[in-house]
Amino acid sequence: MAHIQLVKQTSSGLLLPATPESCDFLHQIKIGEWIHADFKRVRNYAFHKRFFKLLQLGFDYWTPVGGAITPRERKLVSGFVDYLCESVGREHTPALSEAAEQYLNTVATRRTRDTALLKSFEA
């Protein structure tokens, strides 16, 4: 499959060869012969370079955040503490909330015990 470069130079929509290799290829084709082509535009190199520099800058300033405990898990434990308080007939006390937080911190520590947080541009 030949790769040729064409450029539109006239208002009528006529495509002309942009390189000598493209011109040689087109001279080999007979007049009236049908050819099939997939057309692509060439990327704007300056914009492409700027875009990837911007990605690199964002990566340099980005710090992974998050946690070992998802908001859904935190809500589940909080809802369970509320359920226990309702079934016993007592008010929700700060001590119960603190116990739930300690449990969640223990689970988070257990989950991240052997995990190293690495930031890689290749990933």
From TrEMBL:
Q: Which domain of life is it from?
A: Bacteria
Offer one Pfam family short name for this entry. Answer: DUF1367
Question: Which InterPro entries does the UniProt record give?
Answer: DUF1367
Protein name in UniProt: Bacteriophage protein
Q: Which organism is it from?
A: Shigella flexneri 2a str. 301
* Organism lineage: Bacteria, Pseudomonadati, Pseudomonadota, Gammaproteobacteria, Enterobacterales
